C-alpha cells in the first residue's frame, strides 16, 4: 500500500540522516510490510548479474546496483561485529514437493537473499505450521498433500555469515537471526517424517551446514595458536545494548577474578546456566549493557574447562577489563587454560606482550595464587606479571 511505501521511505531517510544504515534497515526489514519479500525476491532474481562478467550491459543495471548497495552498506557496517552470530538456528516454512526437490543430500546451496531464522525452536515450528498439516493445500481427488510443514536447521560456522537482530527487530520476541546473502550451505540430512507418519507435527526436517572458506587464513591461524573459545551463541547470550571500544589496544592490563567461588558447577551445562544468570543480573539488575566479563573460564566437577566469550577482545568490561573464572581456579588445567587464552590474545595482538596482571581488590587469593604460579613459569616470561608491584581494580 501507499502507506507501507511511505513507512519504508521514512526508515531509509532516517538511516541517511543519522548515518545508521544497520538499525533502520533492520527496522524496515522486520516491519509488517511487503518490503522484505520484494527485496529478497529481487535479490534472488537479479543479484548474480552484478558478478556476471559476460554481461556488458544489463537492462536491470539500476536495480542490481541498488541491491548491491543495500547489501554492501549492511555487511560493512562498523557496528555489525557486535551482532555477529555463530551456532545453530532454525527456519520454519511451508514447502511443496517441487521446493523439496531442490534440496538433495550433499548438494551445495548458495543463498542469494537475506534469510530469516531464529534461535528459538518453537518460533521456527510456529512458522513451519507445526501440527497444521491437515489444514495445508492438498489435491481434491485423492487428498494428496501439495504443501508440507518444513523445519530447516542451519549451522553457522563463520562469524561473517549471520547476525542476531533480536535487539534491533520490531518483533524481538521472534529472536531472529538474519543470514546474509552469498553464504553457501551443504545439505547434510533430510528427514521426511510424513512418510512414516502422515500426521507428524513437522512433515520435513532439513539440516544444512555452512561451508567454510578454505582460503580464510585468519581462521586457520587463529585455530593453530588459540584454544577453543565458545562464542556467545553457544551459551545463548542476549544481544548487547552497546559496547565501548577499548581505548588502549592491545591491552596492557589483564584482570582475573573468581565468580561465585563457593559454587562448583557439576558440568558444562551448569556453567552455561551460570553464565546466562550472570548476564541477566548484570543487564537487568545492575543496568549494564552486557555481561561484565570479556571472557569466562568455567571449571566443572569433572575437571573439564571451557572458555566462553563475554564481551570479547575489543570492548571494555563493566568494571575492569578481565577474565572471570567459575569453579576451582587452583587446578593445573585451570591455570593452563588461562595461560593459553592470554597467549592467544598476544598472538592476535589484543594483549601486550608485557601486560600487567591485575587483581580484583576483594579477591586477593586468586591474584596471589596466579602471581606465584606464573612467577615460576619459564614459558610465560614475556609477561611482567604485575610490574613488580601489586595492582588492583
From TrEMBL:
It is an enzyme of class 2 (transferase). Its EC number is 2.4.2.31. SMART domains: PGRP. Keywords: Glycosyltransferase, NAD, NADP, Nucleotidyltransferase, Transferase. One of its GO terms (molecular function) is NAD+-protein-arginine ADP-ribosyltransferase activity. It catalyses: L-arginyl-[protein] + NAD(+) = N(omega)-(ADP-D-ribosyl)-L-arginyl-[protein] + nicotinamide + H(+). Residues 227-364 form the Peptidoglycan recognition protein family domain. One of its GO terms (biological process) is peptidoglycan catabolic process. The keyword NAD applies. It holds the Pfam family ART. Belongs to the N-acetylmuramoyl-L-alanine amidase 2 family. This is NAD(P)(+)--arginine ADP-ribosyltransferase. It comes from Rotaria sordida.
Amino acid at each position: 500500500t501507499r502507506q507501507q511505501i511511505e513507512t519504508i521511505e521514512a526508515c531509509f531517510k532516517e538511516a541517511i540522516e543519522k548515518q545508521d544504515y544497520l538499525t533502520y534497515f533492520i527496522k524496515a526489514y522486520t516491519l509488517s510490510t511487503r518490503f522484505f519479500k520484494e527485496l529478497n525476491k529481487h535479490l534472488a532474481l537479479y543479484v548474480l548479474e552484478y558478478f556476471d562478467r559476460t554481461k556488458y550491459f544489463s537492462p536491470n543495471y539500476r536495480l542490481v546496483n541498488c541491491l548491491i548497495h543495500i547489501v554492501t552498506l549492511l555487511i560493512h557496517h562498523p557496528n555489525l561485529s557486535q551482532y555477529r552470530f555463530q551456532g545453530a538456528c532454525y527456519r520454519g516454512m511451508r514447502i511443496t514437493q517441487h521446493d523439496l526437490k531442490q534440496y538433495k543430500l550433499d548438494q551445495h546451496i548458495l543463498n542469494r537473499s537475506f534469510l530469516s531464522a531464529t534461535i528459538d525452536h518453537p518460533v521456527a515450528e510456529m512458522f513451519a505450521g507445526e501440527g497444521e498439516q491437515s489444514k495445508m493445500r492438498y489435491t481434491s481427488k485423492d487428498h494428496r498433500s501439495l504443501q508440507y510443514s518444513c523445519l530447516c536447521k542451519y549451522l553457522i560456522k563463520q562469524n561473517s555469515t549471520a547476525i542476531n537482530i533480536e535487539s534491533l527487530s520490531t518483533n524481538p520476541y521472534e529472536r531472529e537471526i538474519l543470514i546474509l546473502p552469498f553464504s553457501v550451505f551443504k545439505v547434510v540430512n533430510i528427514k521426511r517424517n510424513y512418510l512414516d507418519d502422515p500426521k507428524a507435527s513437522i512433515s520435513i526436517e532439513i539440516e544444512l551446514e555452512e561451508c567454510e572458506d578454505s582460503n580464510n587464513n585468519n581462521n586457520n591461524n587463529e585455530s593453530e595458536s588459540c584454544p577453543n573459545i565458545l562464542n556467545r551463541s553457544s551459551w545463548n547470550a542476549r544481544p548487547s545494548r552497546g559496547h565501548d571500544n577499548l581505548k588502549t589496544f592491545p591491552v596492557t592490563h589483564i584482570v582475573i577474578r573468581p565468580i561465585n567461588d563457593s559454587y562448583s558447577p557439576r558440568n558444562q551445562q551448569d556453567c552455561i546456566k551460570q553464565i546466562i544468570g550472570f548476564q541477566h543480573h548484570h543487564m537487568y539488575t545492575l543496568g549494564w549493557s552486557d555481561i561484565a566479563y570479556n571472557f569466562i573460564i568455567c571449571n566443572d566437577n569433572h575437571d573439564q574447562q571451557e572458555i566462553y566469550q563475554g564481551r570479547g577482545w575489543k570492548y571494555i568490561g563493566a568494571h575492569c577489563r578481565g577474565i572471570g573464572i567459575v569453579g576451582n581456579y587452583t587446578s593445573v588445567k585451570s591455570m593452563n587454560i588461562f595461560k593459553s587464552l592470554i597467549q592467544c590474545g598476544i598472538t592476535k595482538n589484543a594483549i601486550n606482550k608485557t601486560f600487567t596482571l591485575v587483581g580484583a581488590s576483594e579477591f586477593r587469593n586468586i591474584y596471589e595464587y596466579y602471581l606465584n604460579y606464573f612467577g615460576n613459569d619459564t614459558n610465560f616470561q614475556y609477561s611482567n606479571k604485575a610490574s613488580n608491584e601489586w595492582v588492583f581494580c
